[in-house]
């Protein structure tokens, strides 16, 4: 029997999400999450397909330790990394620059390139690299595949991908809009077409990936034509801890008048801004609880978040010309019905509306939340970055096996 299992590691700045899938029948053998890495209260939650979840709380110092803890949990279920049934390990890598447009077998040169891109993905690429190095050390014989967040966005036209700055300077420093969360935008735009009973080539979709990091994309006939994140994952929507769009002169002002260093401003905009900077909380559940209690700073944070989101819906409507569906996804998009309701409120003239009852339904399935007669479908489509990475990883490994 040939090896058909794929382990996927999605290493975030302070978390690792993972899934072990059997690609011969698409079944999920185990999944889990390590969060709050580097804190005293790190938490590991491991869920085998045929058993109860196991949870563990205690200090996990770094991503290396987190991955070793994951490997141990898998071993306890007889699904350890030493299994001969494992065909490959698929890794989410956030920044692939212009170079990586496809899933890629990781070797030393690929590792060096991912490392070179750290300055433009400081919260993410270092964690991705640690995940890769630890996994390679545990299974040096296995193919390790990188699937890049940036890959889906490489179809953007130059008019959307370039900033209006001096071309030579931009080219010298490779400054352009790369976009992120591409694996999710690809998966969700396809799943939305499926929900509408149409092929991806036929439909235009605005995807709103609203997690802790958040981005919007305009997808025409299955290809990305614009997205809200840019050179780094800082541009665009208001996020949990990131500012999203702002006048770049704010940075010179903070340097010249505020006396802040580049590193201090980097930390301010990436880690102390967005929802947490506006009201002290970055979790939408907590913000909604405070809004319901009449808390003014939580209300203002919510309003700023929605205002920005609505502007992007309008902008991408204009970019696409015709929109068949708007799809909400990721932690906030899948769970926060007040966000979905507020984001499309007042857009009836554009054919966009949400049905209150449908919007209130809780489900893990893709579903429509627009009224039956709506011109544009509004949908909640749960993302599955791990499944998409596994699919791309297995296709690459199988493809190269078939050639030999
Ligand atoms: N039930 C819920 N209601 C509202 N927001 C939620 C809910 N569950 C999760 N979230 C939001 O989702 C965010 C995490 O989303 P996720 O897509 O997992 O992010 P990431 O991959 O960036 O860690 C949380 O910070 C929180 O704001
Ligand atoms: C690119 C990015 O912002 O990823 P995440 O939402 O996982 O932080
Ligand atoms: Mg995410």
From TrEMBL:
Coiled coil: none annotated. Its EC number is 2.7.2.1. Signal peptide: none annotated. GO terms for molecular function: kinase activity. The keyword Zinc does not apply. Its main location: cytoplasm. It is found in: Cytoplasm. Keywords: ATP-binding, Cytoplasm, Kinase, Magnesium, Metal-binding, Nucleotide-binding, Transferase. This is Acetate kinase. It comes from Streptomyces cinnabarinus. The lineage of its organism: Bacteria, Bacillati, Actinomycetota, Actinomycetes, Kitasatosporales.
């Amino acid at each position: 029997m040939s090896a058909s299992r794929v382990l996927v590691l999605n290493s975030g700045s302070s978390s690792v999400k993972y899934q072990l899938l059997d690609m011969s029948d698409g079944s999920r053998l185990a999944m889990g999450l390590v969060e709050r890495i580097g804190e005293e209260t790190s938490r590991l939650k491991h869920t085998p397909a045929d058993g109860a979840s196991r949870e563990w709380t205690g200090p996990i110092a770094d991503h290396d330790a987190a991955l070793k803890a994951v490997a141990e949990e898998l071993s306890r279920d007889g699904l350890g990394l030493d299994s001969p049934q494992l065909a490959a390990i698929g890794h989410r890598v956030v920044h692939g620059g212009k170079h990586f447009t496809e899933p890629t077998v990781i070797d030393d040169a690929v590792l060096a390139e991912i490392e070179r891109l750290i300055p433009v993905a400081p919260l993410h690429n270092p964690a991705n690299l640690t995940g890769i190095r630890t996994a390679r050390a545990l299974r040096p014989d296995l193919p390790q595949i990188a699937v890049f967040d940036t890959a889906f966005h490489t179809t953007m036209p130059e008019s959307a991908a370039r900033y209006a700055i001096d071309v030579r300077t931009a080219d010298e420093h490779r400054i352009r809009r790369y976009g992120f969360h591409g694996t999710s935008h690809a998966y969700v735009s396809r799943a939305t077409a499926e929900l509408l009973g149409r092929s991806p080539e036929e439909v235009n979709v605005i995807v709103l990936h609203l997690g802790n990091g958040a981005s919007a994309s305009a997808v025409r006939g299955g290809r990305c034509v614009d997205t809200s994140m840019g050179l780094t994952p800082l541009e665009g929507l208001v996020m949990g801890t990131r500012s999203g769009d702002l006048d770049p002169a704010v940075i010179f002002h903070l340097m010249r008048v505020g006396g802040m260093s580049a590193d201090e401003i980097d930390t301010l905009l990436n880690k102390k801004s967005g929802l947490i900077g506006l009201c002290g909380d970055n979790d939408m559940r907590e913000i909604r609880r405070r809004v319901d209690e009449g808390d003014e700073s939580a209300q203002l944070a919510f309003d700023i978040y929605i205002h920005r989101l609505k502007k992007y819906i309008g902008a991408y409507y204009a970019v696409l010309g015709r929109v068949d569906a708007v799809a909400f996804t990721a932690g906030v998009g899948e769970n926060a019905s007040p966000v979905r309701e507020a984001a499309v409120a007042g857009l009836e003239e554009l054919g966009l509306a949400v049905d209150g009852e449908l919007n209130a339904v809780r489900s893990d399935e893709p579903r429509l939340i627009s009224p039956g007669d709506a011109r544009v479908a509004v949908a909640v489509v749960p993302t599955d970055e791990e499944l998409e990475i596994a699919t791309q990883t297995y296709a690459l490994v199988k493809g190269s096996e078939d050639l030999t």
